[in-house]
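Problem: given the chain below (225 residues), write out its structure.
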Amino acid sequence: MNNQLDNKAERQALYITNQKVLALSNDVNAIKSPSSINKMPTSCGDLKDIGFVKSGIYSVIDNSKVENVYCDFTKPSDAGLQKLIGYVNVKTTPVYFYAQRTGFYSTTGTALPFDDVKINIGNAMDTSSGIFNVPTPGKYFFAYTGLCSDKDTKIQLQNQTMAVTWTAIGESHCTPYNALAIQATVQLDEDDEVQIYLLEGTIHDGDGNHFSNFFGWLLEEDLVL
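Solution.
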């Protein structure tokens, strides 16, 4: 009788143990199985919901920027779970250009074209028209340096949006045979345009010295998610 009871107790204990092992196995499989929250993670909390358990440095989305954060998954709540490390300079494509002129230019009321392209990564700069077409939204830096010819000269750095025609970002002018310079950092949307516009005078560049230099690049992209 005692042996029967012992066997029954052992079977019950074995059954309970098997159930626990099965539950643990299911938990492990759940952790290993692919999971999603149907969006890009924006926090350590999102990563935790996906199934991340190893504390460390991860990348998450904050609005249109990518952040590096330290996630401490030993913390049970948001308090102490996430610490910002810094921002990641993510670009869907690099955009930068450098162009020069090799001759005089005096056609006022037009964009300054450039016939010597040193670099045009992203192909956003149309040098024949002198117009830069914004390929992706974000913050851009532009700069132009040049030399006046034998008369007072004035230029503008201009931009045009889908809603507003050409407007001045900034302006520069000089007296004969002195330098022109203009630069700006601007927030632009996709398909906006930027140009150097000759208001009056003549750009000097007929002796191969490349006084006219126009360059720009994408500093920080607003990621479209």
